[in-house]
């Protein structure tokens, strides 16, 4: 860009000192510095905006390619599903013709096929009580239920008098 060395900067400083004067030179230098800073920030903002727009264009292109790929996959799945359904109907159609007694829609007739629900462990409390105490102690099952406060009171150290 501009090829300014140390000697050229010194020459510009001396000319500015002579032309502007020593009283106004610091104020002018601050003003020039502020203007150069604003110009640099403006250039940086423009560069950032251009980079953002380029990235946005790339993202739009990527989005369109992903959407096209998704459409292609969806179409291939739909064609595969339709072929599967056709094959399934062919295979199940032979079985449906051979079945003699399909399930009825009537609840009373359906009771013939589905037995009523019965609880598997009818006497589970009695069976649980049949477990020997030595087995309960070994497997660390609780034999007596206590509240938290009772447990704390039971294991609290005794006061010595």
From TrEMBL:
Q: What cellular-component terms does GO give this entry? A: TAT protein transport complex
From the UniProt record, which GO molecular function terms apply? protein transmembrane transporter activity
Question: What is the protein's major site of localization?
Answer: membrane
Does the record's keyword annotation contain Cell division?
A: no
How does the record classify its membrane topology?
Single-pass membrane protein
Note the InterPro entries from the entry: TatA/B/E, TatB
PANTHER family documented for this protein: SEC-INDEPENDENT PROTEIN TRANSLOCASE PROTEIN TATA, CHLOROPLASTIC (PTHR33162:SF1)
Q: What is the annotated role of this protein in its UniProt record?
A: Part of the twin-arginine translocation (Tat) system that transports large folded proteins containing a characteristic twin-arginine motif in their signal peptide across membranes. Together with TatC, TatB is part of a receptor directly interacting with Tat signal peptides. TatB may form an oligomeric binding site that transiently accommodates folded Tat precursor proteins before their translocation.
Please give the family membership noted in the entry.
Belongs to the TatB family.
Q: What is this protein called?
A: Sec-independent protein translocase protein TatB
């Amino acid at each position: 860009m501009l090829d300014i060395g140390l000697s050229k900067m010194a020459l510009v400083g001396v000319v500015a000192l002579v032309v502007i004067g020593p009283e106004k030179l610091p104020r002018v230098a601050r003003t020039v510095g502020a203007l150069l800073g604003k110009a640099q920030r403006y250039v940086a903002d423009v560069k950032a905006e251009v980079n953002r727009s380029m990235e946005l264009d790339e993202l739009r292109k990527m989005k369109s390619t992903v959407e096209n790929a998704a459409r292609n996959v969806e179409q291939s799945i739909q064609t595969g599903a339709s072929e599967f359904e056709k094959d399934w109907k062919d295979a199940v159609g032979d079985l449906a013709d051979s079945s003699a007694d399909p399930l009825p829609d009537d609840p009373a007739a359906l009771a013939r096929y589905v037995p009523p629900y019965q609880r598997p462990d009818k006497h589970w409390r009695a069976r649980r009580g049949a477990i020997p105490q030595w087995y309960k102690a070994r497997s660390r099952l609780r034999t007596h239920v206590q509240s938290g406060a009772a447990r704390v009171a039971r294991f609290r150290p005794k006061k010595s008098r």
